[in-house]
Each structure stands twice: as C-alpha cells, then as structure tokens.
Automatic annotation (TrEMBL):
<dbReference type="InterPro" id="IPR050383">
    <property type="entry name" value="GlyoxalaseI/FosfomycinResist"/>
</dbReference>
<keyword id="KW-0408">Iron</keyword>
<dbReference type="InterPro" id="IPR037523">
    <property type="entry name" value="VOC_core"/>
</dbReference>
<keyword id="KW-0560">Oxidoreductase</keyword>
<dbReference type="InterPro" id="IPR000486">
    <property type="entry name" value="Xdiol_ring_cleave_dOase_1/2"/>
</dbReference>
<protein>
    <submittedName>
        <fullName>Glyoxalase/bleomycin resistance protein/dioxygenase</fullName>
    </submittedName>
</protein>
<keyword id="KW-0223">Dioxygenase</keyword>
<dbReference type="InterPro" id="IPR029068">
    <property type="entry name" value="Glyas_Bleomycin-R_OHBP_Dase"/>
</dbReference>
<dbReference type="Pfam" id="PF00903">
    <property type="entry name" value="Glyoxalase"/>
</dbReference>
<dbReference type="InterPro" id="IPR004360">
    <property type="entry name" value="Glyas_Fos-R_dOase_dom"/>
</dbReference>
<keyword id="KW-0479">Metal-binding</keyword>
<keyword id="KW-0058">Aromatic hydrocarbons catabolism</keyword>
<dbReference type="GO" id="GO:0051213">
    <property type="term" value="F:dioxygenase activity"/>
</dbReference>
<comment type="similarity">
    <text>Belongs to the extradiol ring-cleavage dioxygenase family.</text>
</comment>
<feature type="domain" description="VOC">
    <location>
        <begin position="4"/>
        <end position="133"/>
    </location>
</feature>
<dbReference type="GO" id="GO:0008198">
    <property type="term" value="F:ferrous iron binding"/>
</dbReference>
Length: 146
C-alpha cells in the first residue's frame, strides 16, 4: 500500500501570526493566503513538501465544530524531518528569534530510525519536533528556504 500524509489541521486563534511563524521561522511556503485575506477561501495553508500541507483553521471554523471537544487536545506534537544542514539553519533561526528550545538536541526514534531532534512551540503552543537523520540523504525535499 502506498500512502502519504496529505494534511493536518491546526485550530488557530490568530491566523496572521501563525502564518508569519510558519513562513518566516520554519520557511514553509504559504498557500491560498491572498485568497484567504480576500475572503475567497475559509482558511490559509502552508506547504511542507509536494505531498503535505498544514491547514490553519481560524476560530470561526472550529468554535462551532461539534468535533471541537474531541479534537482540541488530542495532538501531542508533530514532527518534520529535515536534512542536517536545514535542521542546523532552523536551530539558528529559532535561537535568533528567541524561540525556546524545550528539549534537545536528543536522539529520538521515528519513521526512518533514530534521528536527532529538537522540540519547540509555535506561537499558539503547538509542540513541533524538528529532526534530521544522520545517515539519511534522501529525506523528501521540504520547502524550507525554497
């Protein structure tokens, strides 16, 4: 069976602040931002790679959602895998922007074995793990900095 992660959804209080964080700190490419600002689409997204996006649902979408109670506390964290060089650049940006590294660098097991990880939060408290695999040269290109 072939599959890939298509998207995750983050319920956000401040779409603009979250978009700024994910595009300027993590260097993910914004999607549908102009359309969102113009009121043509209900939410903006950020692109991690050719297969995966993160949708940023504004409060008006999730406040009324019957699933809110079920889904609001279930996400522990999500992890992005980067090349070692890109990971080091991200670490520098986090430090330069005074974003607290909550844990790491630490070894952690993941989809491709053991990698080196750091943990930090976005502006609304979502925990993000960023990692690299020392012996993994074929990590799918993340759109960081491209």
């Amino acid at each position: 069976m072939e599959c890939f992660m298509d998207h995750i959804v983050l319920n956000v209080e401040d779409s603009k602040n979250m978009m700024a964080f994910y595009s300027k700190i993590l260097m993910f490419a914004p999607e549908r931002l102009e359309e969102y600002d113009a009121g043509k689409v209900p939410f903006p997204s950020i692109r991690l790679n050719s297969n995966t996006i993160i949708d940023l649902f504004p409060k008006k979408m999730w406040q009324k959602d019957a699933r809110d109670e079920q889904s609001s506390e279930n996400l522990n964290h999500f992890c992005i895998a980067l090349s070692k060089g890109t990971w080091q650049e991200l670490l520098e940006r986090l430090k330069a922007n005074n974003i607290n590294i909550q844990e790491g660098p630490v070894p952690r097991w993941g989809a491709h074995g053991t990698g080196t990880s750091i943990y930090f939060q976005d502006p609304e408290g979502n925990l993000i793990e960023a990692r690299y695999y020392e012996d993994k040269n074929n990590v799918e290109k993340c759109l960081l900095g491209s």
